[in-house]
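Researcher: Predict the fold of Type II secretion system protein.
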Amino acid sequence: MGRIVRNQFGLSFIELVITVVILGILATVVVPFSQMTVKRTKEIELRRSLREIRTAIDEYKKAYDEAHKGKQVLNETGYPETLEALVEGTDFGSEAVTTKKKFLRRIPVDPFNRPASGEKPEWGLRSYKDEPDSTTWDNSDVYDVYSLSEGKAIDGTLYKDW
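Model: Structure tokens for Type II secretion system protein follow.
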């Protein structure tokens, strides 16, 4: 008598269930890891944007002081009136300078407070007269910027305190 040999191609129900369970366990590990990676990338972008704006403000102040060296200027701090002044440029009222000096190509975007399409980036502003942790701006000049996000960083600090 001959034996009938059956080839079994495919997966049994148990093998399929085990595969789905293993994939589910892997997904629960990968999703939080990828979310953390996205958050970390945004934090790096925020630090870079803050550094870029603050450096431009410092360069503006340095150029202002250089242009007004030896001159007495009352009620002038030497800081830009708005962030847009860093993009538009200025000649500091000097007759010897024929072109405006620009300090930023564009105002960087806060990755945790992205503007709607077509709108300008929004940052919290502090003037020279404001307290270091002030959240109100007196519209006199721009001494510092901060994020308007209420979120917490990976290290537990608030983005607005950076």
